[in-house]
Amino acid sequence: MDFAFTDEEERFRAELRAFLAEELPDWWRGMFVDDPRAIPFTRAFCRKLAARGWLALSWPREWGGQEASVWQQAILREEMWAHDEPRGPQYMNLNYIGPCIMRFGSEAQKRRFLPPMTAGDVLWTQGFSEPGAGSDLAAVATRAEARGDHLVVNGHKIWSSYADAPADWCFLLARTSASARRHEGLSILLVDMRTPGITVRPIDSMAGPHELNEMFFDEVRVPRDCLLGAQGQGWEIVTTGLTFERVGVARYARAGRVIALLVGHVKAAGLAGDPDVRRKLAELRVGHEAARLLNYRVISLQARGQVPSVEAAIARVHNTQLEQRVGHVGLEILGLGGQLTADAPGAPLRGLLHRQWARNVPSTIAAGTLEVQKNIIARRGLGLPRAS
Amino acid sequence: MDLTLTAEQTMLVDAARRFLARAWSLADTRAAERDPRGFRPDAWREMAGLGWHGMELPAAYGGGGLGFVETMLVLEEMGRVLLPSPMLSTVVMCAPLILALGSEAQRRWLARIAAGEMVATLAVAEPGWRDPWGTPALPADGGGRLTGRKLFVPFAPDADLLLVAAAGPSLVALARGAAGVTVLDRAPGEPLGAAGAAGPALARALDRGAVATLAYMAGAAERALAMTVDHAGTRHQFGQPIGSFQAVAHRCVDMRTDLDALRHLVYQAAWSLEAGREGPLAVSAAVAYGSEALRRLFMHAHQVHGAIGFSTEHDLHLFTRRAKAAELQWGSPARHHERVAQAMGL
Known about the structure:
The complex is a heterodimer of chains A (388) and B (346). Chain A has 388 residues and is α+β, with helices and mostly antiparallel strands.
């Protein structure tokens, strides 16, 4: 048991912070902002990270990575997420799309798809959810039918982040067999987004314009060599990917940074003596500490070669509710001024808390709802029975 | 950073669990509640034989040279079986005070503690205090004679050694049988450390006490969760186990997620105290979270158990009552949140 980072790890964090202070422009507020500079900035930023070997830090050397320890990876995730994820869409490549290709892909697929990720040159989107398949993801109806040496895709995907960035590739979950049991008939296809027949329609959201999209597939011809893993292995791949994703995002780290910025604001605004404000900030800080430690438990188990899916769900339950609480309580502390967004003159903390609140309304929905996480913990963690 | 137990810590926990499963049952806990002593001297001596009382003490006093984390892990195991003992007052609180402040002659008491021959207790709270974080007002004259009242002193009737927090703050040690101890009427004690210099060591003892209590309660809550999940999986209504209903299952899950947070906050606090880093923030985060989490946990446990959990025939109340006592013992969540606020620079 050891609750401290090593000196070397602390130095790495300091290096990252210095790099971020240098590279992040004053206007950077993360994605989901209506700013045409955002996507080009994330591309340039990823190339700079790649040049330092920090983009694919955790990956094997064979694929351009540094084989860094899980704790170095955790520090990288924390610093990126705390600074509004300047890798933009590419964090998904590193978190789960690349790792799924490494784990399930052919040698040819690895050689084709991994180097552009390592170089920071490619944007991916995911095609999982459908209008009729949300929490019940296995209800996916998008079909991929074998015709000659192609799979022909027809269907409708929704909530695909960054498809309009535009994304270069799509990690697509589709039904390749209608007759099998529904979990067994699913496959993952790696789809070139320039293929004819794909239409992307952006969906505006409370968090800001674009980034979320619908995708329509009409007779989209995908070469057979773009099937990831075996036909019918899609469910296994997607659940593996979601487990990577649940611990791959250091949500608590941004909550921690927002809390620290709130403390500074409260002191400057003469509110530091208010007992209610003090208690509320302390409660957030304690919640942050709990979430951080539960994430560190997951990483500790990963360091021992385990795949802690229940522990990851427990960490996520804390992460997502914490970041929502930080938004609500932060706005309560700011009061009327809290509703002002970044572009409004005099917005306290330049609209930070408004963004924290709005962006995190879907925290307990995306990548598996809070209730789905709790069902995972109930069945796999506690061994409680399913309803008959 | 590594939040898992070392191989040695795992061995210690396994050995403790095996011993306690054999040596103690909830029937023993019920019997101890009816016993005016509140603990069983035979179990107390057996635990000393396993080296638990001296784990943190230097070898010179018969100790094992381990850390507070190990003591905490043993207390967590004791909590699983609700074993009552003066371990908290003697080993967690008094022994480090004697080690930090005592003269060489006084430190010889430590060897008796390690051997299981001495029960020690710490008297802090005075009339009107809501928690032990007040400023002791009990006057001590220069010779260590004490007059006044201390309340909520655990195992006082059986204590061989009583450490009393007096004005200063100072500490005064009283031996069993000294005249006037029951009501502290000019009771003849001896100073432990210099007058007025006990503040930091006393605060540290209170921090250790709070963290150790929560470790004990983490063990107790783990057992209560197991009982609750077992009930949810076996109790049938509407033709199926009630645990198959999401509303019931999610209460069990909320217990799991709260308890895991509590446990890791407690582990971090114990580690921080042992390592001498960031004490107040880590400790008060654990206490503030832990106290509130225990309320939630046990309300869920009762709700899932239904009426049977409220009856004293069922064992759940043994856990619930201790959880409430633990919550009240070390100061309100508000007090500990304020301490966190100060550590945050507010």
